[in-house]
Amino acid sequence: MQLSGTDLTYALLGLGALGAAALPALVAKRPLSAPMVFLALGFVVFLLPGGLLPQLDPVSAGPEVEHFTEVCIVVALMGAGLAINRPFGWRSWSTTWQLLGIAMPLTILATAVAGWALGWAPAVALLVAAVLAPTDPVLAGEVRVGEPTDAEFDEDEVRFALTSEAGLNDGLAFPFVLAALALSAATATGWSSAWIGHWVWYDVLIRIAVGTGIGVTFGRLLGRLFFRARSRALRLSEHSEGFVALAATFASYGLTELVHGYGFLAVFAAAVSIRTAERANGYHRVMHSFMDQVERLLTAVILFLVGGFVAQGGLTALTWQGAVLALLLLLVIRPFIGFFSQHPGVGARRERVVTAFFGIRGLGSFFYLSYALGHGQFSASSDGLWATVIFTVLLSVVLHGSLATPVVAYLDRRHRRTAEPASDTR
């Protein structure tokens, strides 16, 4: 009997789903993460002889990569927004605003300058910097908030800051990717700065405002529908159907994209607004649990394929410039800028250090690179750009994934020690 590639695919999908369910508990409290395991499994499986598995090529499969990662990102954004317990506010979210308003643009600028100094054209350097801008705590679950609770301020500052930052910078990276596309088009026909004005007022100001506005408005409407609709049939919180969160995700994303707003921002804003509608309701846990399961399945598939791509020689196009830039971003640029962007009064020094260091790169980078390569032309090799981005994400998954558990365990012990004397004095 001849082996079938389709049958093998079914088997791998089934085993992968079982792994996505079991691995988080198996690797808990160990210096290991589920994403690391899926990457390793993909690498090993694609090394097996037999020729049953396809040849992976993100360049030729650009549209498929773009849309699959797009789905995974919006699912993760809805889950992150539903998990955040802290009420939205300028002061209560001050660390988030510092990471987004100061650290993110400075990190993009420093990374672009480093890429240009390493020999890339300005448009290519800006593209790589923008593509690597989004952070992604999904790939190191210890440093993100857990499931929703009734308490409004029960997240520690590190988990809250990293989760809220990742929820918003997935959308805020889009203007910088579009800037790289505009710069590439301008330099191809001779230098022109005419694109900058349109980029500022439309790609930055209008599209961010549209995405945020639709997300908040739609989320509030859904919150009223879920918890306070007059008709019991429409009061969906009483039916405890988790897949409703998926409907809210796609609806908010699709509606925003139809009017050219940033859908990633809309999804996260809608999730936070739904969470705010009736904070203590247990339906939030139902929706979050469902989204978390879908997210783990999609992430497992993507990381398995990334591991397979590496096994098939996907990093052979990696240049020394790309490797150096990845190391600079993860070990120098993000940690230093992330630390000094946070106001000293926000939290303890050790918390600011951990928040700055865990700028995890992940699935958002795959989406933005496939989007950019599908909508513009750049002077650098597409294979080389993919190798650089994948190497950065691999390095981040291994580095941050192995350190997340011991570092967060240390912070938790410190929090318990400081809390005990306070409780003893009551």
Please, could you describe this protein's structure?
This protein is mainly α and 426 residues long. The chain has a single domain, classed as Na+/H+ antiporter like fold, CATH 1.20.1530.20. It contains 15 helices and no strands. It has helices at 5-27, 34-45, 62-83, 94-117, 122-131, 157-172, 174-188, 194-228, 244-258, 263-277, 283-311, 320-341, 349-357, 363-375, 382-424. α2 (34-45) packs parallel to α11, α3 (62-83) packs antiparallel against α6 and α14 (363-375) packs antiparallel against α15 (382-424). The radius of gyration is 21 Å and the shape is globular.
Structure described in brief:
This protein is mainly alpha-helical. 71% of the residues lie in helices and 0% in strands. Helix 6 packs across helix 10 and helix 9 crosses helix 10.
Features:
globular; 426 residues; single chain; 15 helices
List the helices and strands and how they pair.
Elements: H1 5-27, H2 34-45, H3 62-83, H4 94-117, H5 122-131, H6 157-172, H7 174-188, H8 194-228, H9 244-258, H10 263-277, H11 283-311, H12 320-341, H13 349-357, H14 363-375, H15 382-424
Helix pairs in contact: 1-11, 2-11, 3-6, 3-10, 3-11, 3-14, 4-5, 4-6, 4-12, 5-7, 5-14, 6-10, 6-13, 7-8, 8-9, 8-10, 9-10, 12-13, 12-15, 14-15
Largest sheet: none
Assigned CATH architecture: Up-down Bundle
> Which series of helices and strands comes N to C?
HHHHHHHHHHHHHHH
Oligomer: single chain
